[in-house]
Design a protein that fits this description.
By secondary structure, this protein is mainly alpha-helical. The chain is 84% helix and 0% strand.
Length: 235
């Protein structure tokens, strides 16, 4: 009976973590909206790059496929979060394409076709694998590698914050949402015993924690410098 209760608690905890991860991920998916308001208002993509949205789409599609029952059973919450993410990225890519210069339009369209082509190859190729465990491992390794590389992308921003000693280019709510989402899906993967979920999200949790620590450290330093400058201006 106690084992049954423990299993029930783990299942509830896993589902709760998955739902929380979906909610925090939604905050991440909304984060580019200010950028696209500016793009639409100005009628130009200016110096913005469309690559992050192309890459995010690729990541969402691979992870979405991993979460389907054909690859891994009982991973519905992985499918839902990445389905929503893929839909957002498609919208962002379309908006970017509509307001881009002709050269950028050709490049974005080409990259989108490449992403869709690669995903089709992964989808069809994995379905050719008859053994379910091998099929899961194949798609799982791809999704894990995609997630790890996505979580590693803020390393550039972390380096920039340390060099400039400024958090101007590291928005707090984006860092917080990334951290909370990573923690949620780390717990989700850990409670379900899925290394392809908890390993990359464990790395994401660590990197998110580093971003938050740096934010509070350099934001406090910046505030103290501003206060000192204000005091000196009145003396």
């Amino acid at each position: 009976m106690s084992l049954f209760v423990a299993c029930s608690i783990c299942e509830v905890g896993k589902d709760a973590a998955g739902v929380a991860g979906n909610i925090f991920a939604f905050g991440l998916f909304l984060s580019p909206i200010p950028t696209f308001r500016r793009i639409v208002r100005n009628g130009s993509t200016e110096m913005f790059s469309g690559l992050p949205y192309i890459y995010s789409l690729m990541n969402c599609l691979i992870c979405l496929w991993y979460g389907t029952p054909l690859i891994s059973p009982d991973n519905l919450l992985i499918t839902t979060v990445n389905s929503i993410g893929a839909a957002f990225q498609f919208v962002y890519i379309i908006l970017f394409w509509m307001h881009a210069e002709n050269a950028k339009k050709v490049r974005i369209l080409g990259l989108l076709l490449v992403v869709l082509g690669i995903f089709t190859i992964i989808l069809v190729g994995s379905l050719q694998v008859s053994d379910s465990n091998t099929r899961r491992a194949f798609v799982g390794f791809l999704s894990c590698a995609s997630l790890i590389s996505m979580f590693a992308s803020p390393l550039f921003v972390i380096n920039l914050v340390i060099q400039t000693q400024s958090v101007e280019f590291m928005p707090f709510y984006l860092s917080l949402s990334t951290f909370l989402m990573s923690v949620s899906f780390f717990l989700y993967g850990f409670l379900s015993g899925d290394a392809f979920v908890y390993v990359p999200n464990g790395i994401g949790t660590l990197l998110g924690m580093i971003q938050l620590v740096l934010y509070f450290y350099y934001n406090r330093s910046s505030s103290e410098d501003s206060r000192e400058s204000l005091i000196l201006s009145y003396t």
